[in-house]
Batch of 2 targets.
Target 1
Amino acid sequence: MVKNEKKAKKEKIKRVKPQVLKGFRDYPPEEEIARLELLKKTREVYERYGYLPLQTASLEFAETLLGPHYTDDNLKELFGFPGPDEVDMALRYEFTVSLARYVAGNPHLPLPFRRYQMGNVWRVDKPGPGRFREFMQCDFDIVGAASMLADAEIIAVMVETLEHLGIRNFVVRYSNRKLINGLTSFAGIPEEKATDVFRVIDKLEKQGKDAVILELGPGRIDKSGDKIPGLHLTGKQIDLLTTFLDLALKEGNDTLADVEDLLGEIDVSMEGIKELREIGGYLKEMRTPENKAKIDITIVRGLGYYTGPVYETTLIDLPDYGSIFSGGRYDNLVSRFSSQRIPATGSSFGVDRMLAALIALKAIETRKSTADVIVTTMDKTRISDYIDIISEIRKAGIKAELFMGETRNINKQLKYADKIEIPLAVIVGSDEFESGTITVKDLRAGREKSKEVSDREEWLKADQIQATIKREELLPHLNKLLKKE
């Protein structure tokens, strides 16, 4: 028996390696706290405009996401698999298709339907720096409104959301797919080349006019030395497109008038111009700052998806981030599920990318703790007294943590609080209990002072680091330090 026990002890216990799947990640508290703050502020704006929260299923029928004629290869492009009910299913890769399914499946839903949704989506993309297979998306949409007033509101909400998040230097650029769709007729571009032409024109802001013209023609060599193939359009076609590009680059407020002079005989372009003017008028009435929402006639977005106005956001101080908040009108998506034509428009942003931008711009605070106060526990025989103190603090609406570690050493407890950046420490030992006092240490001030003072005695005597007060003065003193009064 003993021999078998020894043998069992010698056998190596197989443990599971603590690893995360490729393309997935964990969020440490300091990131998650900031992320929740981002979502809170975003929700405040959306609900100010009357948008309703909606949470759709994470798993959908494969045909919901891919259409009725999907193949096994299509299913492999998603996190798809045969489900327990012998039906193909997949994790959602965005929210818009699920929204269209929800609207079609609820015919008595009052329209227009304003909704926002925040949650995770999954894509089988190749992982890379800042690119994951699971990430959080934040959408808001208006379904059932054909008026350009809806598109103007989407833009206004985008502007207000970014301002509420603390971003100041940005511009929401908007255009209309109808306008640019007419450009191909104007320039005599064959239909089969139209999509490629749009993709090249969409590069105007990033690559510049000369690079775009080369790509429309023979091609070019990029900065890395790679060959970018050209579309080999004719000289006449390129000249006509160049005239359009010149208008896009022209400074001033008469862009639409110039585009109308150029494309005025193209019906679909005129329709797009009319809609853009309408949006501009509504934005002015909504008092949306003109420097925050501007027309950019080169924006393409979502070929084969968007049907009218399109919009995207540029962070002027972070140009390499590209478009960080974008969307447009998609009037045909609900028809996948219903014979009824229901217009829709909306916008979305990736939460991780937005959070990274906020951190880079120092527009959001990152914290390692949710607590503003820690109550230390030096005397284990007085636990009930410590619980009484922290209960009083929490009932006053102050977030507080009671130290529950094994050590009684006050320095180790304060070191713990310092590591997770709790602002204030409440210290009550036997002397304080006897005298009816409490010591409050401002750990924030201590951290700042320690950068200037090396001597601990001098550090402890420094003003605003710690104070011993009467028991009944605790809450006013904490509120004063936390600037809640």
Note: The two ends are 70 Å apart (CA to CA).
Target 2
Amino acid sequence: MSGVVVPINKAGSRESASQNNSAAVHSVQSLVELVRGDMEKVNQLILSKTGSQVTMIPQVANHLIDSGGKRLRPMLTIATAQMSGYKGSHHVTLAASVEFMHTATLLHDDVVDNSDMRRGKLAARLVWGNEASVLVGDFLLGQAFRMMVDTGSMGALDVLSHAATIIAEGEVMQLSTAKNLETTEDEYLTVIRSKTAALFGAACEVGPIIAEREPEIISAFRSYGANLGIAFQLVDDALDFGGTSAILGKNVGDDLREGKVTLPILLAYRRGTDDERKFWKQAIEEGKSDDTALKRAMKLLVDHNALADTIARAVHYGKIARDALAPLPAGKHKDALLEVIEFCIERGL
């Protein structure tokens, strides 16, 4: 992923790619290079753990696993373990567990949201059905917990199992906010803290846990991950209207079509006229979200600075993530983790 084809500037308008692609200079490449050796082991473990005598299980699992995701969360587990001075091999096992948890939530999410695309491919539910997607997601969660147990780290098991519970709670909370335009910003942030930030935080926390670092170090990494996760999700919310299918891996405007209430929509709804709020109610609550509605929605989001302000909030959480790492020693790993923050936010600039 190398920049946003339809960027969002600070005034909330959308500009051409040629004007802005040169501005995005950060990437995850430094992180990739630092964790490359261990991530090769993670990928091998992932492949071995998707095996099953039930043919459909590896077919469904690998449909998503092999579809080009960045594997940012397991890379963060590897990097934070390395930065914490860990010398064993359990960080590889935990990184694979984190990726399986993430993949399981994606399979489940696509069923709940009736999504058609995931990472640029047909969602697994459209190929094999909702039942298979849910059950293979459950299989991956089971494998994730088996791998956690294999490490013998009760601390890591506690953190990741707690994250799994929080993610599930977030999924249920999202059901209550779906199509509900009276959702507050605080309520929305609670959902993404649960659905997205919890796994980012846990992925960064288990590394220093198995390295047996001091509580303040563990807390710093957890804060970094959780706030990075919030920033990441807020940018994704903006990109659903200001990005492209190639960047998103799904159709632009899916949140509108699915009746999903995200922060840009909430901001535009609250700031709109009575007529505009009526439009949002028809589009979100009544499902009148055809291409014409999408065009009007995108115009209103720009007119009310909803996209730019969503990115501004992402910048805020990015700064919190950066500050969380401030007390930690300088070095290549710290630099790479800081660059991940900039990369995640630059996707929306």
Note: Residues 23-346 form a domain with the Farnesyl Diphosphate Synthase fold (CATH 1.10.600.10).
